[in-house]
Amino acid sequence: MMRTPNTSHSLKWSWLRHAVQIAALLLFAAPLLVAGWGLFGVSVGGDDPVPAPADLPFFGSLSSSSIGGVTLLDPFGVLQVVAASKTFELDWLWFALPVVVLYGLVRARAFCGWVCPVNLLLELVDALRRKLGIKVSEAPVPRRAKMGVALAVLVLSAATSVPLFESFSPIGAVNKGILFGSVAGLWTLGAIVAAELFWGHRVWCRALCPLGGFYEAIGRMGVVNVRYDRTACIHCDACRKACLADPSILDPVLAGDDTCVRAGDCMACGSCVDACPARALSLGLGKGAKPAAEPAEEGSAAAA
């Protein structure tokens, strides 16, 4: 009997994800506003002294933050500083390790799907491009290229003695621009938006972002995974069209070779889950076992 697609979903992961992305921006902005400072580097008030945001329990940016006196650092930023300075401080490891452990336990590229402001912006650009009817290439650059870009950033950071990606990071352009009025990375962000509109679908997040490449390298360890129910799938391809990371990461499950998406590229964003009309995909804990290999036919065994 053919299964009737169920188009109603009790939870829309995409809406929850967007709420988390916006909440992250507000979280970083809150200390400045609470202290009476302005955003975008704009001063407010008169000559009266105001408290320093850094004295509050939480303050910082996606590159460096302080929570209750505990410093947290972007691990890829730390690697760039180590490469550029040719030195290593043990404190840098302790400050970056909680971030690595957190995203490593969840799913490393969950940062890209649930926190990164560039991903939120590019989803809006993606919607605009579809509304304008602009056609772009689906995969102009291989998705694994970003790991090569990440390695190149570290090598060039060592060669130039400058933390290279931090100098033009579009993530900093959004995050630090809102908080402190920083213009570093704005040209990169503009180029990424133009590429998204006219060159390739999700080309920055899928194939070029070095931070995404770093998280992809450790991304297979996470416990939050997209699971697949082969019996429910109607092979409508809606999940592939919705995938923010890269449709190819769904190929093993859609071919029946696996029961969950194991690729380190998966952002656990839930877009494919929301798009599936038959609820063949779900977002949950654990990977599950790979399906057992089907036994060979008796005739084949006899011939062998």
Automatic annotation (TrEMBL):
GO molecular function: 4 iron, 4 sulfur cluster binding; metal ion binding
Keyword Membrane carried by entry: yes
A Pfam cross-reference name: Fer4_5
Annotated ranges, domain 4Fe-4S ferredoxin-type: 224-253, 257-286
GO cellular component term of the entry, any: plasma membrane
Keywords: 4Fe-4S, Electron transport, Iron, Iron-sulfur, Membrane, Metal-binding, Transmembrane, Transmembrane helix, Transport
PANTHER family per the UniProt record, alphabetical: FERREDOXIN-TYPE PROTEIN NAPH
Protein name per its UniProtKB record: 4Fe-4S ferredoxin-type domain-containing protein
